[in-house]
């Protein structure tokens, strides 16, 4: 992560135990992207093409600036900051793949942010978000490549980030043990989904500050990917929870979705909530 505010960018290297061709498919094909990242994706491949990353309530269209299969992908999109010429300042996301054999190093660089305060929120968001999302990519490619993702998701607007986080992780919520504040990447933990068995896993990423969240690999659910997040939003902050399951019958993810529905109804009944399943 660049500390010079004049030329801010986020960068991260990730080693993945898979050939470059498999990682390329996961970042450049619609089916691959929808298996670990966006809940729905569209891709018109090749330089000059387009990509759509789509989540409930948030669609992110991008242009393909560079397309080198197995090597490099550069995407661009318009920021919310005016460029002074009637348009918007463009931002860029670069994926570079290196390595051979069964190991690939993915380098991600998200850049174009200027010193303006209007960039601060988005820069903070992607700086917390990319480590979480790329941990999902690594787990998918190494453990679940080619399997269809079954998704349980729930979200709600909340009164405050701190209150939402305490409610979700505390004894009336997921009852995370040991105490969530002491957890760090690599630590084992357990939590309880309402009406289901208590689940076990290990922490992959942990965010604190304006974004409070964690991602985890749930070993007792065949290495499912778990995402728990409280973040600022337009108006009230937002809490959301998601589970990506790759094995087991559909009834399993349906049971977990009902558990998420019940959890948010109990904790945030006074807030408008939404759920999505894929």
What brief labels describe this structure?
single chain, 278 residues, alpha+beta, Alpha-D-Glucose-1,6-Bisphosphate, Chain A, domain 4, 2 domains, seven-stranded antiparallel sheet, 5 helices, globular, disordered C terminus
Quick overview of this protein structure:
By secondary structure, the chain is of the alpha+beta class. It has helices spanning 20-28, 30-33, 120-144, 161-169, 250-268, and strands spanning 8-16, 40-44, 50-55, 58-68, 72-82, 88-98, 104-113, 150-157, 188-192, 198-207, 212-218, 224-231, 238-245, 273-277. It has two domains: 5-144, 2-Layer Sandwich (Alpha-D-Glucose-1,6-Bisphosphate, Chain A, domain 4), CATH 3.30.530; 150-277, Alpha-D-Glucose-1,6-Bisphosphate, Chain A, domain 4 (2-Layer Sandwich).
Order of helices and strands: EHHEEEEEEHEHEEEEEHE
CATH homologous superfamily identity of the largest domain: START domain
First CA to last CA: what distance? 33 Å
Percentage of residues in helical conformation = 10-25%
Radius of gyration: 19 Å
Tell me the CATH topology of the largest domain.
Answer: Alpha-D-Glucose-1,6-Bisphosphate, Chain A, domain 4
Average of the residue pLDDT scores: 92
Number of strands: 14
| Unreliable residue stretches | 271-278
């Amino acid at each position: 992560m660049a500390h010079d505010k004049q030329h801010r960018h986020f960068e991260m290297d990730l080693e993945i135990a898979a050939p470059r061709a498999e990682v390329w498919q996961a970042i450049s094909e619609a089916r691959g992207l929808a298996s670990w990242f966006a809940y729905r994706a569209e891709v018109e491949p090749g330089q000059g093409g387009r990509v759509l990353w789509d989540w409930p309530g948030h669609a992110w269209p991008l242009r393909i600036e560079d397309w080198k299969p197995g090597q490099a992908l550069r995407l661009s999109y318009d920021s919310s900051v005016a460029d002074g010429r009637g348009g918007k300042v463009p931002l860029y996301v670069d994926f570079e793949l290196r390595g051979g054999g069964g190991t690939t190093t993915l380098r991600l660089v998200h850049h174009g942010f200027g010193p303006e305060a209007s960039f601060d929120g988005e820069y903070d968001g992607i700086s917390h978000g990319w480590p979480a999302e790329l941990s999902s990519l690594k787990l998918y490619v190494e453990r679940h490549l080619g399997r269809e993702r079954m998704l349980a998701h729930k979200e709600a607007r909340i009164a405050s980030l701190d209150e939402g986080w305490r409610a979700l992780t505390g004894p009336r919520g997921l009852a995370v043990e040991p105490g969530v504040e002491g957890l760090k990447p690599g630590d084992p933990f357990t939590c309880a989904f309402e009406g289901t068995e208590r689940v076990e896993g290990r922490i992959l990423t942990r965010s604190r500050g304006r974004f409070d969240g964690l991602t985890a690999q749930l070993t007792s659910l065949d290495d499912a990917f778990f995402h728990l997040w409280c973040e600022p939003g337009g108006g009230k902050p937002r809490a959301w929870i998601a589970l990506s399951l790759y094995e087991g019958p559909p009834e399993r993810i349906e049971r977990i979705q009902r558990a998420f529905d019940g959890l948010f109804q109990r904790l945030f009944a006074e807030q408008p909530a939404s759920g999505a399943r894929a």
